[in-house]
Amino acid sequence: MLTLRDRFGAQAPPDITERFMSFAPIEVTAPGEALIRGDTAALRLHCDASAWQPRVNHYPHVRQDATGTTVHSLDLRHTGATAHFELRAHPE
Questions:
Q1: How far is CA 65 from the centre of its chain?
Q2: Concatenated DSSP letters for the chain?
Q3: In whole angstroms, what is the distance from residue 89 CA to residue 56 CA?
Q4: What is the model's pTM?
Q5: CA dihedral in degrees (3, 45, 58, 84; nearest 10)?
Q6: What is the pLDDT at residue 82?
Q7: Per-residue pLDDT tens for 19-73?
Q8: Dihedral (C-alpha) 52, 50, 37, 18: value to the nearest 10 degrees?
């Protein structure tokens, strides 16, 4: 398991987005939980659903060999004067 931690503090509420990018598709499977599923493995991500709002985005991308693909992002957004971010990732 991998755990990422981040802490923020400000006098005015900042607009904070934690972003994770992947060539494998990302799916929000439950509050505070997302799944990145590749061809041979999967990675489940967990965070505090009461503090972070998830959004999955998809972007067209051209590889170095000029072939097209899609890049996926999991954006976790928080607005508040202070924030504690902890993401736990474990293989499935």
A1: 27
A2: -EEEEEEEE-SS--EEEEEEEESS-EEEEETTEEEEE-SS-EEEEE--TTT-EEEEEEEEEE-TTS-EEEEEEEEEEEESSEEEEEEEEEE-
A3: 17
A4: 0.81
A5: -50
A6: 65
A7: 999 999 999 999 999 999 999 999 999 998 888 899 999 999 999 999 999 999 9
A8: 10
How many CA atoms within 13 Å lie on the side-chain side of 48?
A: 13
Nearest 5°: the CA angle 13, 21, 25 is: 120
Main-chain phi, psi angles of 37, to 5 degrees: -115, 115
Check pLDDT > 70 for residue 91. Answer: yes
Contact 73, 21 (CB under 8 A): yes
Q: Are 25 and 71 in contact (CB under 8 A)?
A: no
